[in-house]
Specification:
- This protein has 92 residues and is of the alpha+beta class.
- It has one domain (2-89).
- The protein is built from two helices and four strands; from the N terminus they run H-H-E-E-E-E.
- Strands 1-2-3-4 form a four-stranded antiparallel beta sheet.
- The longest helix is centred in the N-terminal third of the chain and has 11 residues, at 5-15.
- The model has no long low-confidence stretch (mean pLDDT 88).
């Protein structure tokens, strides 16, 4: 979408991930998030929120840090996997 086009340029230039690669990107993130640094955010209403920084994310054509944001409804602990809300390459 128009608001995300600048973020898409980052994904393309750093990791080789482009338009139409959303499902692939989510799978790459889910495969690598286990080694990330977790930071819990203030909850909203019935939603638990947290960020995970993947320091050495590996994409199809590059590596680098990625910040991800996740949400899980209260009461879902262990019942459903958290929803990936957004992800952003971190530029040094």
């Amino acid at each position: 979408h128009p608001e995300g086009k600048h973020k898409l340029r980052l994904w393309e230039s750093i990791f080789g991930i482009g338009v139409g690669d959303g499902a692939r990107l989510e799978q790459l993130i889910r495969n690598q998030v286990g080694g990330g640094v977790v930071s819990e955010r203030a909850p909203r209403a019935d939603t638990r929120r947290f960020g995970v920084t993947i320091e050495d994310f590996e994409g199809p054509s590059g590596r680098g840090p990625v910040l991800t944001a996740w949400a899980s409804d209260h009461g879902d602990y262990g019942e459903r996997k958290p929803r990936l809300v957004t992800a952003l390459p971190l530029v040094k």
